[in-house]
Design a protein that fits this description.
Blueprint (H helix, E strand, L loop, with lengths): L2 H10 L1 H5 L3 E3 L4 H8 L5 H19 L4 E8 L5 H14 L7 E6 L4 E7 H9 L6 E6 L15 H8 L10 E3 L11 H10 L7 H9 L10 E3 L5 H9 L1 H4 L2 E3 L1
Parallel strand pairs: 1-6, 7-8
Antiparallel strand pairs: 2-4, 2-5, 3-4
GO molecular function: transferase activity
InterPro entries: Ac_transferase_dom_sf (IPR001227), Acyl_transferase_dom (IPR014043), Acyl_Trfase/lysoPLipase (IPR016035), Mitochondrial_malonyltrans (IPR052760)
Organism: Ceratosolen solmsi marchali
Length: 247
């Protein structure tokens, strides 16, 4: 979710903003969602975005890291795959042998994050591991894994300077897939944990659109992903995607 695209939607369709009942931001977009909801000011949010980005970039430069998209067959065991890849990385002497599920994208789509040695193992053995459409992402960090632990200190210090308010609309946490609560101590914890934990995007989408069969799906706006989030929504809930508009 981009602030610029959000402003565009506000100018062109103000009623859509006024009637919004739920917000979900993918990864860094969660901060935009919190700004939109009034949980933090625009200025505070921008500072957090800058600090978070710089800290995670520094963490990504400590070792050779990356991310890998995979289409998982029903027979694949993603947790076992991570263990195998980590074991391989340890055996060949990787400095930071890590492999984790970084993003639960949709039912079959998962993104692994970790050291490049482990990701290369997955790529090489993808067929026997029950993986298809394996593709290395154009990033240099193992984001949303423990490889980002060095980024926590700077982000936590910046977050401590922010007075979090309770959101005026439901905002879903990437960390646990639930709506932010009245407990601001927990909300801060979730924002920090999000950096080193998998993004539960599929789980969030399921919760947002889970409804009785006779209840219509709401209008949804895909902000600034150029249609990527709508495509993912279609893979999770095709009927909900029919009422999704790209901005």
């Amino acid at each position: 979710m981009s602030l610029a695209a959000l402003e565009k939607l506000h100018d062109e369709r103000p009623k859509a903003i006024e009637s919004c009942v739920a917000v979900a931001g993918y990864s860094i977009g969660e901060l935009t969602g919190l700004i939109f909801s009034g949980a933090m000011t625009y200025e505070e949010g921008l500072k957090l975005v800058a600090v978070r980005g710089a800290a995670m970039q520094q963490a990504s430069e400590i070792s050779s890291q990356g991310m890998l998209f995979c289409y998982c067959l029903p027979s694949s065991n993603v947790f076992q795959i991570c263990k195998q890849a980590e074991k391989w990385a340890i055996n060949i002497g990787a400095s930071h042998p890590v492999c984790r599920i970084a993003i639960y994208l949709h039912t079959q789509g998962k993104i692994f994050g970790g050291c490049n040695e482990a990701l290369n193992y997955i790529q090489k053995h993808s067929a026997e591991l029950g993986l298809r459409r394996v593709q290395k992402l154009p990033v240099s960090g193992g984001f949303h894994t423990i490889l980002m632990e060095p980024a926590l200190k700077a982000f936590t210090q910046a977050l401590d300077k922010v007075q979090l308010e309770f959101p005026n609309t439901s905002v879903y946490s990437n960390y646990n897939g639930n709506i932010y609560s009245f407990n601001q101590k927990l909300n801060r914890k979730y924002l920090i944990k999000q950096i080193i934990s998998p993004v539960k995007w599929e789980q969030i989408i399921q919760k947002i659109f889970n409804r009785p069969i006779d209840l219509d799906f709401p209008r949804t706006f895909d902000i600034a992903s150029h249609g990527t989030m709508k495509t993912i929504l279609q893979m999770i809930n095709a009927k909900a995607a029919q009422k999704c508009y790209v901005y």
